[in-house]
Amino acid sequence: MRRLAIPLALTLALGGLAGTPAHAATRTGAQDGKVARTAACQGDWLPGSPTASDVMGGEISLVGLPAYKLGEKVDWAASPYKNRSWEFVFQSLRWLGTLVVEYENTGERRYLDRATELAKDWVAHNKYGARGTKPYVWKDHPVSLRTQPLLCLSEHVKDSWLKDSLAVHAKLLANPALYKKGHNHGIDQDIALMGIGCRYGRKDWSDLASRRLTGTVKLDVDSQGALMEQAPRYAVYVYGRLQVAMTNMKSCGRKVPGEIAKRAEALKDFIAHATMPNGYMAPLGDGSAETEPKMETGTPKQKVKVYRAGYVFGRTAFDKQDSAYYSIRFGPGMKFHGHEDHLGVTYYAQGRDILVDAGFHSYEKSAYRYWTLSPEAHNVPTVVGAKFRPRTSSRLTKSSLGDDRQAFRVTDDAYGVSRTRSVLVNHGEDLMAVLDTASGGKQVRNLWRFDPSLKVVSNGGGKVVLADGKFKVTLLQLSPSCAKVSGQRVERGGKLGWVSPTYLSRQATTVVVSPAAKSLLTVVVPGTDAPKVSCSGGKVTVEGVSFSARLL
Fold this sequence. Notes:
Layout: E1 27-28, E2 37-38, H1 52-56, E3 59-60, E4 68-69, H2 84-92, H3 94-106, H4 109-125, H5 140-154, H6 160-174, H7 184-199, H8 203-220, H9 233-251, H10 258-273, E5 304-307, E6 311-315, E7 325-329, E8 345-349, E9 352-355, H11 367-373, E10 381-383, E11 394-401, E12 405-412, E13 419-426, E14 431-438, E15 444-449, E16 455-460, E17 463-468, E18 471-478, E19 489-492, E20 498-499, E21 507-508, E22 510-513, E23 519-526, E24 533-536, E25 539-542, E26 545-548
Antiparallel strand pairs: 1-2, 3-4, 5-6, 6-7, 7-8, 8-9, 10-15, 11-12, 12-13, 13-14, 14-23, 15-22, 16-17, 17-18, 18-23, 19-22, 20-21, 24-25, 25-26
């Protein structure tokens, strides 16, 4: 599954903003006849924004959706696609900030004039708490992200309407009831509050932002460097934002807290482990399958890493596209950007995706979005006849790490009884073996979502063969006593057979659903449609690779 990378007038109770900045903005390249380039405007804070030419031409494309015509007078309540992400990005005004950056880069006044016109019009039509102002305009994230372009503009526009608007933003950013602690939104709130505090000499705001940021980073990034938001792709965003935060602290004459620097650095290893051999991040949780980290992570020393946050990432080698790779999920119950994917696995071998999650579609409140969060959208075991209990934590109880073979056991009580999955991954002769059981005499059923390129060519006798041209994959199911388990059901489309390889996309894919059984041993063998298999005395041999039917 190849993807395209996309590069993600109120006065404060404590007083308004001072008229003179306490910390002068860093300026570079200021010469006679040229506009000073400011630290507030320069830097990597405009990812995926429309170009200045787009904005001047009156059309902007946001979050990958078709271009929207702004017109001379902007409709600030516009929501042409009824898309929450579009609305938030539109109200962030980052796209407006490109004009100020272009003004600094070219010295052409028309860019600054249009940016000022747009920002002043936005302020006039979006008063906080006013009738007609859309509620989402003043949600925490648009407020945080909007602060940057407004601060950038304030380097060149000293009018009171802009200063007053930034005062409104600061009041909301400083409000503890609105603060998103332990989340990337909290990081953005602190960056924004620090920026306003530094720009206008409000040490109380800068101090508050620094204190909060340290606490939030310690909650959001654990001591191993794992992001706690349950979607690895957000680690790239958080890493980038922490670079901005640390740079801004230094520009403001402040010392960067050691814990922030340490955990930001540790994120690089986590990102490296969560990146598949094809260069894209494992699309777990709200993680788009088109996320390609554009950063230098270095090469971790370990090829297999177990994170207490709830991830196992393993591979045969770094920097080799044909390396085998797998992920296993466990850990704290679903929160933030997580899905109900506990005990789930993904598998990549011989240069391609084999087993995949349904992925991330969007944040739209749709039936399909909620389905992508459910266990049925992941490669997990379910307990027949038992009710699923959302947000249940799971544990890694056993592991065995070898150079060419690793095995793990994870368990939870998400269905009111113990649900246990053992996973063995063999390298060289590639295969993944999975044993699912439940306590109390309950039966289990599992499902396996294959990459959309793989289609079923045969199904019978506990063996399902899928193919993409000459490439074949075989799924075998049997009991630990070696009896074949037949009766696999296949869906492509329908209720279960879907995947979202890119934002807002939905593509039919092949899902194999097992019959119900007290225990299920599943073996996935990439690269062949006729693996040599034998099983006796609790020992399974596949293509010359032998292992216990209990795996661990």
